[in-house]
Automatic annotation (TrEMBL):
InterPro entries to which the protein is assigned, alphabetical: P-loop_NTPase, Small_GTP-bd, Small_GTPase
GO cellular component terms listed in the entry, alphabetical order: late endosome; lysosome; phagocytic vesicle
One GO-annotated biological process of the protein: phagosome-lysosome fusion
SMART domains, per database record: RAB, RAN, RAS, RHO
Pfam families in the cross-refs: Ras
Superkingdom to which the source organism belongs: Eukaryota
PANTHER family (UniProt xref): RAB FAMILY, RAS-RELATED PROTEIN RAB-7A
UniProt name for this protein: Rab GTPase
GO molecular function: GTP binding; GTPase activity
Keywords: GTP-binding, Lipoprotein, Nucleotide-binding, Prenylation
Amino acid sequence: MATKKKVLLKVIILGDTGVGKTSLMNQYVNKKFSNQYKATIGADFLTKELMVDDRVVTMQIWDTAGQERFQSLGVAFYRGADCCVLVYDVNVAKTFENLDSWRDEFLIQAGPRDPDNFPFVVLGNKIDMENQRVVSQKRAASWCQSKGNIPYFETSAKEAINVEQAFQTIARNAIKLDEGLVFPIPPGFQVQPEPTPAKTTCC
């Protein structure tokens, strides 16, 4: 039997405080969600092992604080990243408007060899609070297209909607970085769940 290739990927999650970065990571890695909000201090990471084609992939997912005082975590933190995930809250316009700043911050700090083709993935989180939405799918998709067709998913860390699919795409795009080819946006990437009643808890 042929030995399966092993790959270690470093993934950075960026976005404003409170958009659900930690919740998305915990839902994907631990299949858990907590209503108790606790701001991340500095940075932390979890690891997840998965199979992508013939590769055993260990994904090191770095969760970062969204507060301004933690935005400049240092070149060493960003360097070596294989993919950057930009997260916003579909119910808070400012978190979406700040994606440009987060993307620019990453490119400046990480200094990737080919910034025009570096793989980003955008996640619009908290779609379980659908009747509070202020950022439309069309607006988000248009922004992603303007930045080079960045893959875009709408997610709910609370309801585990599109979380697994999003991180599979993140892993595939990160792997393809080394081969000089990024996977295109998968069909149906904007699949939307049935509307749910308003939730008062944070996700």
